[in-house]
Structures are given as structure tokens and as C-alpha cells.
Automatic annotation (TrEMBL):
Gene Ontology cellular component terms for the protein in this record: cytoplasmic side of plasma membrane; cytosol
Native organism taxonomy: Bacteria, Bacillati, Bacillota, Bacilli, Bacillales
Keywords from the UniProt entry: ATP-binding, Nucleotide-binding
Protein's UniProt name: P-loop NTPase
Residue segments, region Disordered: 1-22
Amino acid sequence: MADQANQLRQEVKRRLHSGSSNRKTKVIAVTSGKGGVGKSNVSLNFALSLVALNKKVVIFDLDVGMANLDVLMGVTPKETIMTMLEKQLSLEAVVETGINGLQYLAGGHGIGKILTLDGQQLNHFFKEVGSLQGKVDYIILDTGAGLTYEGMRFLQAADDVFLVINPEPPSITDGYSVLKALNEKNKQASVKLIVNRSLTKEEAERTSLNFQKASVQFLNKSIDLLGAIPDDPFVRKAVIAQSPYLLEYPNSKAAKAIDELVRSYLNLPSVYKLGVKGFLTKILFHK
Ligand SMILES: Nc1ncnc2c1ncn2[C@@H]1O[C@H](COP(=O)(O)OP(=O)(O)OP(=O)(O)O)[C@@H](O)[C@H]1O
Ligand SMILES: [Mg+2]
């Protein structure tokens, strides 16, 4: 059994290193403590802003509760990661190419099982998702809210974690709980704060400052603010139109804030660790 697992790891390593392109594929997990704070809108519009800068991006909807990126984009994908495994399909066959070439795939019903796969399905998952190494610049994971076991594993395995909060106290305290839990598992985790739905610049600053203070005081961890997205009625309008605000209302405050947030992200020193290889190894082998 141990031998078999070892063989599989060796095989996976070989495949992941045999990519022809030298793109450094980075995995970004977007999360929050409380639900409904804007993770899916941030994930989608962030991804589209990267695409506008000629980056190749795949976005995975890993919300184990309710997947909703497809609703925000107005697309209806036929397959999911789970059906890819059940039917032994290739990733290419199941990934939907959506708006402006953004690639999209939902985890699907029972995605939590991904952590306990074995044998043929494990091998298949590794082979297919691993094939993204070097082919895309970013894999963005829209994870569910809160402290689910699966969610935490995805966060631990990502190169960067975007923690979305809004100025309301429950979102801040629940966000803090996620940071604390992640910090207990991995002190080196690269977590960036995003304040969504602030009414003023001052409110955004105050919210992030309070969060950062608590994080330094109680966890001895400093967490950088990546950016703030204002509360903007055009976000709701875009959600209703099932079209991302970046494209539907490019001059809205929210769209401009997302573009700025992407620029800030790209200007940061790269924290690329192991990309897809590290991600897969960590989520599947508890490493
Ligand atoms: N910057 C914003 N300004 C105004 N409204 C916003 C903003 N961001 C999000 N919203 C509103 O909040 C709603 C929820 O956003 P979203 O679906 O992105 O949250 P979520 O964190 O992914 O939720 P869930 O936890 O259910 O997955 C949106 O439908 C929209 O109406
Ligand atoms: Mg969501």
C-alpha cells in the first residue's frame, strides 16, 4: 500500500515536471469566514481583470455548499470535477471556456470526496489537474465560507489566500477565526486581506487596521491589505444581469477597485511556492 502510494507520487512528479511551457502556475484560494461577503464576485472579477492583462486563468468553483459562479457568468456547464472523475473525462473536455477566454469548472456534488480519493480516480485527478502546470498563469479557487475541513485543506495548499471581509463585525470576527485556524496549520501561509463593501475609504482603512491589529496581537501574524472594493450598487445590478461588473460596468467604482487590486497583486514580490504540484500534493497527501 505504502509502495503503491510512493509509486503514484513519483509518477505524478514526473508528469508535473514534464510540462513544455515555463509559466509558473500560481494557485490562489479566495475565502471568507462568513458567507455572502463577496467571494464569488471578487474571484470572478479578479480573474477577468487578469485575463484582460493577457494572463491565462482557470477558475474553480469549490464551494461545497452552493456553487454560484456559473450563475454570475450566465453559463451552464455540463460537467464538473466530480463527473470528470466518474466518467474518466479529460480536464479539457470538462472545462468551460467562458467570457473573454476565462476557463471555468465547478467542483460539483460531493467535491469534498476529492480528499479521500484513491486508486484510479486519484491518479486521474492528478493527471488532469496536474496538466495545468505550466499551461495557465493562475488557478483561482472560489472556496466556500467558514471552517469546513475541505475548505481548510484547499487554503493550506494554495500559494496565496485572499481573505475577504466586509466592515460588519460578524464578517470580521468570522474572518479572524479562519485566519487563526489557518495559522495553526501553516504559519507561513501567505494571506492577503480584501475589504469588500466599504462605504468610504476611511471605513475600509479602519476595518483593515482593526483586523491587522488583532492578527498581530493575538496570532503574531502580520497580514497585508491587498485592496478594498467599495459598496457599489452596480455590483448588484451586474449580478442581476448575470454579467460580471468588470465587463458590464467597467467604469463603476467596484470595477476600478478590482483593476487596482490586480495591479497591486502583480506588483507584489512573487510568493510562488510549488504551484499546481505543491497544491495537489498537499491536498491529496496531507503534506
Ligand atoms: N462591492 C459590492 N457592492 C455591493 N454589493 C455587493 C458587493 N459585493 C457583493 N455584493 C452583494 O453581495 C452579494 C453576495 O456576493 P457573493 O455571491 O460574491 O458572495 P459570496 O461570499 O461568494 O457568497 P457565498 O458565501 O454564498 O458563496 C452579491 O449578490 C451582491 O448583491
Ligand atoms: Mg460564493
